[in-house]
Amino acid sequence: MSLPGWADRFDGDRAIRDIVRLCALGPRPSGSPAAGQQRRVVAEHFRSSGGAVSIQGFRGEHPLTGEPVPMANVVASWRPGASDRLLVAAHGDTRPVADRERDPARRLLPFLGANDGGSGVAALMELARHVSDLPGALGVDLAVFDAEELVFDEVGDYCLGSREFARRHRRAFDSGGPSYEAAVVLDMVAGRSMQLNREGFGLEYAAWLTEELWEVARDRGASRFSEDCGHYVEDDHLPLLAIGVPSVALVDIEFPEWHTVGDTPEACDPRAIEEVGRVVMGWLGRVAGEGPGR
């Protein structure tokens, strides 16, 4: 049985303050000092919220120079001993340059990534404040993936952090480790004009999970969750789907300031991120109340 009113504890204004705090570090592309600072901030926040934190360090390659780039995922676990688990994840890196700027002279500028990079992490930070109160026996992991888009004008590979996470999880699972019942990826969930369509890969390969989330959204009157079928989006749910974890991406691919210098905290809406956060918490509460193997 879920905790009455638990999902309503997600505070969009507080999540926006977390976005502002992350953006104060500056642009946070993979391998940058600001990315390392953000990782430390998030890890400490997860620990102080009761999570058991692990850092998954790995190396990637700079797509233009070929130089090695240090990367790391941050994973926090609540009820780490539980074998049946749920995962909520987001990427923390910002794209290196604003390559969707209309003015070609501005396409090499860095940008803050308040929504694309910041909002998913801020949503996880707000979720972390409440996960310890989740009823039931299921374990919950919150993961911040690195290197979702260390890409320059489509040169480079996407989703390096989630690929590394999936590789490690598959190896642990094959050795008798825990399993994920489902995963939800949050990406660009705070835009002022946000509309979340049902993303194509999730709808095709995890239709039941998509329906569970949208059922919670309908029950809550979450108007930013559209019944329309949207684009097929290359995002961090794909490596998870590839290893058999039912996964859905909540992603606003029509965000007007996407990959531009206009992606600042002012482009974010506390009510948008609050709506997403409360739907995710409502889903977590519902699944936890039904128990493993529902």
Q: Could you tell me the number of beta strands?
A: 8
Overall mean pLDDT stands at 95
Radius of gyration: 18 Å
Strand content: 15-25%
Q: Provide the domain count.
A: 1
Distance between the termini: 13 Å
Q: Which sequence of strands runs across the widest sheet?
A: 1-2-4-3-5-8
Shape: globular
CATH topology: Aminopeptidase
Under the CATH scheme, which architecture would be assigned? Answer: 3-Layer(aba) Sandwich
CATH superfamily membership: Zn peptidases
How many helices? Answer: 8
Helix amount: 25-40%
Order of helices and strands: HHEEEHEHEEHHEHEH
> Low-confidence runs (pLDDT<50, min 5 residues)?
none
GO molecular function, one term: zinc ion binding
Domain Peptidase M28: 73-281
Protein name: Peptidase family M28
InterPro entries: Peptidase_M28, QC/QCL
